[in-house]
């Protein structure tokens, strides 16, 4: 068994990104990322602060727009339109969740797909689906990096994704399919979930139920990626019962310290790509 160290892998990628950002600046382009935070959700505030620090760390210009929870949808969309037109901004991220009654689907559609570094626009999703050039959602992109870091051959493997969200489950399933894995997507209505998971060479758990995936769900020698981050008694817990799974998996991500660090790093990578393409 080997624990996949997301912190170390993320740190290595950031060092490379830092060099690439510096080289782009020499050419006259400073990558710019705009982050929009609406309301005072504590977790969102922490995420945005971490993104701000990460940008500073590698030399990306960060512009954070902190808005009141009472912000109207119309004024939020007007801000997005102004950022779409700003040539110094290469990437736009709207921090989710948005306070009600704001409609996240309507708001996200206002973002120019060429600046959609979070990978959540319907056009971006369509580009991913048909294989066109576009931004890969940050967490799924990070998950693929972690799987590939093990050195296993993905092609021909049985991959099971537990969870069907637009942010993680669906895109990571499509990325695995693109690597020629045989992919099964499971969810809350799936029957015999334990038996399906136990046949997975690659298991991605992204269902948001702490400890749901026990050792009985794990095929000996599998690669297990735990995307879950639920707070239980003040501590982050994953979807996988680590204490049991670690004895059966060949490779496994911890929580925290697995997928989490990769998400912001992939946001930085997407912003750099946007600056290269459209800077």
Give a verbal description of the structure.
- This protein folds into two domains: 28-114, Rossmann fold (3-Layer(aba) Sandwich), CATH 3.40.50; 138-260, NAD(P)-binding Rossmann-like Domain (Rossmann fold, 3-Layer(aba) Sandwich).
- Helix 1 (6-26) packs parallel to helix 10 (260-278), helix 2 (42-58) packs across helix 10 (260-278) and helix 6 crosses helix 10.
- Strand 2 (32-38), helix 2 (42-58) and strand 3 form a beta-alpha-beta unit.
- The protein contains ten helices and eleven strands.
- With 279 residues, it is an alpha/beta fold.
Describe the secondary-structure layout.
Blueprint: E1 2-3, H1 6-26, E2 32-38, H2 42-58, E3 61-67, H3 73-85, E4 91-94, H4 104-109, H5 122-130, H6 138-149, E5 158-162, H7 169-178, E6 182-186, H8 193-197, E7 202-205, E8 223-226, E9 230-232, E10 235-237, H9 242-245, E11 251-252, H10 260-278
Parallel strand pairs: 1-11, 2-3, 2-4, 5-6, 5-7, 7-8, 8-11
Antiparallel strand pairs: 9-10
Helix pairs in contact: 1-10, 2-10, 6-7, 6-10
Shape-level CATH architecture of the largest domain = 3-Layer(aba) Sandwich
Class inferred from helices and paired strands? alpha/beta
User: What's the CATH topology name of the largest domain?
Assistant: Rossmann fold
Averaged pLDDT: 96
Report the helical percentage.
40-55%
Order of neighbouring strands in the sheet with most strands: 1-11-8-7-5-6
Helix and strand element order: EHEHEHEHHHEHEHEEEEHEH
Biggest beta sheet attributes: 6 strands, parallel
């Amino acid at each position: 068994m080997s624990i996949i160290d997301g912190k170390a892998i993320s740190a290595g990628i950031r060092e490379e990104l830092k060099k690439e950002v510096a080289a782009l600046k020499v050419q006259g382009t400073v990558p710019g990322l705009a982050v929009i935070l609406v309301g005072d959700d504590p977790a969102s505030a922490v995420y945005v602060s971490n993104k701000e620090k990460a940008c500073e760390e590698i030399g990306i210009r960060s512009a954070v727009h902190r808005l009141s929870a009472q912000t109207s949808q119309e004024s939020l969309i007007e801000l997005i339109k102004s950022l779409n037109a700003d040539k110094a901004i290469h990437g736009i991220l709207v921090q989710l969740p948005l306070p009600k009654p704001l409609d996240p689907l309507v708001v996200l559609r206002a973002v120019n797909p060429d600046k959609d570094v979070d990978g959540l626009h319907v056009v971006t999703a369509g580009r991913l689906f048909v294989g066109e050039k576009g931004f890969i959602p940050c967490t799924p992109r990070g998950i693929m990096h972690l799987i590939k870091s093990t050195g296993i051959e993905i092609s021909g493997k049985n991959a099971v994704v537990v969870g069907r969200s637009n942010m993680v489950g669906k895109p990571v399933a499509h990325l695995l399919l693109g690597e020629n894995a045989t992919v099964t997507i499971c969810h809350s209505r799936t029957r015999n979930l334990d038996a399906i998971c136990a046949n997975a060479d690659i298991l991605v758990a992204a269902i948001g139920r702490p400890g749901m995936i026990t050792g009985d769900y794990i095929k000996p020698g599998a690669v297990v990626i735990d995307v879950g981050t639920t707070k239980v008694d003040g501590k982050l817990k994953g979807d996988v019962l680590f204490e049991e799974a670690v004895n059966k998996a060949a490779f496994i991500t911890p929580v925290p310290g697995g997928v989490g660090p990769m998400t912001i790093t992939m946001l930085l990578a997407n912003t750099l790509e946007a600056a290269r393409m459209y800077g």
